[in-house]
Design a protein that fits this description.
Number of helices: 2
CATH superfamily: F1F0 ATP synthase subunit C
Oligomer: single chain
Distance between the termini: 22 Å
Helix content: over 70%
Number of domains: 1
CATH architecture: Up-down Bundle
Structural class: mainly alpha
CATH class: Mainly Alpha
């Protein structure tokens, strides 16, 4: 009986980690899509500000990717621990 409980807990941890990693990937995709879309709109409105908009877009996209990477690492740590 104890073995069954341990196996069920391990399975739930694996499912939770997979779900968390999937949500992190989906969230990052949505966030970067929003950043790119708004940057294109800003460049279309003010073409002379393309350099500033592009650099700010890259910084924001890097921050979103960093958060997504952190969430995926935490999800993988759930599996290991």
């Amino acid at each position: 009986m104890l073995t069954l409980a341990i196996l069920l807990q391990a399975g739930i941890a694996w499912m939770g980690a997979g779900f968390g990693a999937g949500l992190a990937a989906i969230g990052a995709g949505i966030g970067i899509g929003q950043i790119g879309g708004k940057a294109v709109e800003g460049i279309a409105r003010q073409p002379e500000a393309v350099g500033d908009i592009r650099s700010n877009m890259i910084v924001a996209a890097a921050l979103v990717e960093g958060v997504a990477f952190f969430a995926i690492v935490i999800s993988l740590l759930i599996i290991v621990l």
